[in-house]
Design goal:
eight-stranded mixed sheet; 15 helices; alpha/beta; 32% helix
């Protein structure tokens, strides 16, 4: 209010009735970094530019293939190619199938496999409400041949340099709280390790985000040798900022792709003529199939879906093959789904609740069913301390997330995901709120205002169940002042120090029920 009052009259002076408050920052804003069908925002390419979307519709508007202006139909947003290959004998590894008395394998062209599109779809299905998408490029050329049965998929179109560049694009987006790389497991093991180390380093430097990792080998685990994949993963994650990383195992069987999404265009590089011998064998001729295939080759006026439906009606074997391909397309890394689970748990229970004992939506099974003994080696590792969270199938309950640990599994402070994320939320919320006091007098009045503001914020968290203790004084303490957190020299140096101590709730990871017999009394 002006102090040069020279004219007689009535002057009004407004005073703040309420102190400043701390607004809780959002905790579940993931960034998906990987390959998309295309990337155009407002008619301009937006490769390597983080774009926030709030639904699958918004994702498709920016990153999806556009609809045909004549028919109004959109091309497939994701169309991997699978090869049906006759084998002389059953392969030593991987799945095989017997058609017409012969052994076949059905494996993908590795350079056509991508995971981001379906991962984003299941992110929103599992409760995700918003996410940044960093497109590192479009789909690359096919190799023209399948991967060996049971071998790891390495997509040569997926580049470490692209994913790293996408990661660096997020340096200016501190509101991102989760980094997700659905296609990281399509790199070689060494390059995947480099990406994980760089991601953890950036998470540690920014202090705002965690990274959700997948384990190479989780797509088709060897029933006996799968622990070797776990060991390779642990060897490749480095030792920096492990509390900022979390991993899940194995891959998941999902419902992301419907049977209608799979056609003859996904088989043998789209060459429908290669299906003639398989679907019309000499031992069981099927002239209807031959007629349909010839019609497709001649360029009939039917759509791909109409031709595909005709083939499905004419051949049960064709239906079986499409079902096998659909199941393989639907095997996805868990990171994108878990980002959705984090969002759901944060919204319904709070970031201080462990994102575990949850049944993810759109998941039908896991690629390997782990036992309690199997999980013991994942959850606790005495040597590296790098815990890996299991996703397990339980009879009568289905698929459940059955772990809540960070990669820093031996740390008493940062062992649990919800503890790490809660502390990050408190840090960032307090940081934004205290910014209002930059350049304010470094005196007792300011200290009291800061303390009161933080006390009120933490009291509300305690009431919500984020902090443990019978009363607020048991749950947290805020210290600020001369002689307590600051010296006279600190005040002269214009330095204000605030100490905040909190007792965050830990998950009941191990519940022990003690039962003993009591002698009957008469």
């Amino acid at each position: 209010m002006a102090t040069d009052r020279k004219t007689p009259g009535v002057y009004i002076q407004e005073l703040d009735a309420f102190p400043n408050s701390v607004a809780q920052v959002e905790t579940a804003i993931p960034a998906f970094i990987g390959y998309t069908p295309q990337a155009a925002l407002n008619g301009k390419p937006c490769w390597f530019e983080p774009v926030k979307v709030h639904s699958m519709g918004e994702f498709l508007a920016v990153f999806g293939f556009s609809a045909d202006p004549v028919t109004g139909q959109s091309p497939p947003q994701y169309a991997p190619s699978y090869y049906i290959t006759q084998q002389k004998k059953a392969p030593a590894k991987g799945d095989y199938y017997t058609f017409n008395g012969n052994v076949y394998t059905i494996e993908p062209d590795p350079d056509t496999v991508y995971y981001l599109y379906n991962s984003v779809k299941l992110f929103f299905e599992n409760g995700g409400t918003q996410a940044y998408i960093v497109s590192t490029g479009g789909y690359g050329p096919a190799s023209g041949s399948p991967v060996d049965a049971g071998a790891a998929i390495v997509n040569l179109n997926v580049k470490l340099a692209d994913l790293t560049k996408g990661l660096k694009a997020l340096l200016k987006f501190p509101d991102v709280t989760l980094y997700v790389f659905p296609e990281a497991t399509l790199l070689s093991s060494e390059e995947n390790g480099t990406l994980m180390e760089e991601t953890l380093l950036q998470c540690g430097n920014m202090q705002t985000a965690m990274a959700i990792f997948d384990v190479i080998g989780g797509r088709a685990p060897d029933p006996i040798l799968w622990p070797q994949d776990i060991q390779v993963f642990r060897n490749n994650t480095g030792s920096n900022s492990l509390d900022r990383g979390v991993a899940y195992y194995p891959f998941l069987n999902t419902t992301a792709a419907a049977i209608d999404d799979i056609t003859y265009g996904n088989l043998n590089g789209g060459k429908v003529t290669t299906l003639s011998e398989l679907l019309n064998p000499a031992s069981a001729p099927n002239p209807a199939v031959v007629k349909i295939i010839d019609s497709i080759v001649e360029g009939n006026k039917l759509t791909v879906r109409e031709n595909n439906a005709a083939l499905m009606n004419a051949s049960k074997l064709y239906q079986q093959i499409l079902g096998i391909v659909q199941a393989k397309v639907n095997i996805l890394p868990p990171s994108g789904i878990m980002a959705g689970v984090y969002s759901l748990v944060d919204a319904t229970k709070g970031v201080w609740t462990a994102p575990a004992n949850v049944a993810p939506v759109g998941v039908t099974d896991v690629t390997i069913r782990l036992s309690d003994q199997d999980q013991a080696g994942l959850n606790v590792d005495a040597v590296s301390g790098k815990s890996i969270n299991a996703i397990r199938f339980f009879n009568g309950r289905g698929v459940l997330v059955w772990g809540a640990r960070t990669l820093d599994g031996n740390s008493q402070d940062w062992r649990y995901i919800n503890v790490r994320r809660t502390i990050t939320m408190i840090e960032q919320s307090a940081k934004h709120a205290v910014m209002a006091y930059v350049f304010e007098p470094n005196d007792a009045n300011t200290w009291a205002a800061v303390k009161g503001m933080l006390d009120n914020f933490l009291t509300n968290l305690w009431r919500d169940g984020a902090l443990q203790g019978a009363k607020p004084s048991d749950a947290f303490a805020v210290q600020i002042g001369l002689g307590s957190t600051m010296t006279a020299q600190d005040v002269l140096d214009n330095l204000m120090r605030v100490n905040v101590m909190v007792a965050v709730t830990h998950p009941a990871e191990f519940i022990i029920i003690t039962i003993e017999q009591q002698q009957a009394t008469t």
